[in-house]
Amino acid sequence: MFTSINPATGAPGESFAELTADEIETKLQRAAQAYKSWRATDYATRTALLSAIAEQFEANRQRLAEIAVREMGKTLKSALAEVDKCAVGFRHYAQEGPAMLAPREIATSGGRATARWLPIGAVLAVMPWNFPYWQVVRFLAPTIMAGNVGLLKHASSVQGVGAAIEEMVIAAGAPAGLFQNLAIKSDKVDALIADDRIAAVTLTGSEGAGMKVAEAAGRALKKVVLELGGSDPFIVMPSADLDLAAKTAVTARVQNTGQSCVCAKRMIVHADIYDAFLEKFAAGMQAVKAGDPMDAATDIGPLSSEAQRQTVLDQLEMIQKEGGKLLFGGEALPGKGAYMSTGILVDVPIDHAVAKEELFGPVAMLFKVDDIDAAIALANDVPFGLGSSIWTNDAAERERFEREIEAGMTAVNQMLSSSPEAPFGGIKRSGHGRELGPYGLHEFMNLKTVLG
């Protein structure tokens, strides 16, 4: 049994029964049957369904957003924005998907060849709680467009979101079995990956979860895409617009209460502007208002759970034991709910493991560097390589950052974010493979070469 807990109040919410072995088997059979017919549909049928799902998300946006607020604590305004983004994602693949799948003519020494993208089967998605709708849509929209079918193992704490997404797909007129939410725990994932009816698996989550899924997929010789978080650098150089950089840094650090894989977590600032940046950044962080996520005046809600808050508090304690200094905040707030205050850490020892970990909460680590060489070296001195944000108006510096920062994504003079059009993913221990754009669509397809 799954029971959601409202992290703003600690009160239990809706409960969902865990699927039995027989029920899982039934869903696998439905997925296999749905794939037989869906793979043969034309692009017009697929795009019509994607548009209809977008309409369902738009028509039910308030209700869908409120489910996310209750289950993982994000603010209502951010939950509404997430639901709207999902509709945009479905519409993007409806509009651009056919062109992405158009055959490509290739000239060869032996004559004519054509590259075609064809579906492969059922894709299993293991998804997290932090962006409970958008993370799913990043896999689901291209899955439908590809002619594949989808199965979702959502995080235990957001089973209401998983059920709601399935409801939207069914209401849009999808054939039975095209997309199914599996109310199961993590211990059932290995067996699903091993099942011949599962063609591939995608996961967004922790390093540990990624390693387990990758190991299971490797044993079964199945394609896997992994997005495993990061410790993204936010680098500010003297030529940058300091006011804009400091203001954006606040949003980049505390979006979703700091619980985003692409939140800026390490602020790396040139010594010439360090003090001025710190003053502006600290003022902005201290002005962030934590409170009722349903209140429009609230900037950040609670963390997703008491356990998640304790994880962050334990990390902060360890960092301080190793010499880091908490300038302010970073504390559990009194009263009900998993709330904590924003904070800034300085003097964090760069050679210690704690400086290389992902802080999944509203606290930033601030580092001072003397030049661009030191900035790049520090940015790369972590096991992660998901995103990065660099702030400079020097063209030569920009070129070096784009070329030398070890990350799957770099934002220039703006906050890093995802969009349906651009590929999303990382390198190193942040995972491999890409979501979104044409690359995300092609990840789980058979690229077939046709000669003649």
Automatic annotation (TrEMBL):
Keywords: NADP, Oxidoreductase
PROSITE patterns: ALDEHYDE_DEHYDR_CYS
Similarity section: Belongs to the aldehyde dehydrogenase family.
Originating organism: Sphingomonas qilianensis
The name this protein goes by in its record: NAD-dependent succinate-semialdehyde dehydrogenase
InterPro entries from the UniProt entry: Ald_DH/histidinol_DH, Ald_DH_C, Ald_DH_CS_CYS, Ald_DH_N, Aldehyde_DH_dom, ALDH_GabD1-like, GABD/Sad-like
Domain Aldehyde dehydrogenase: 2-450
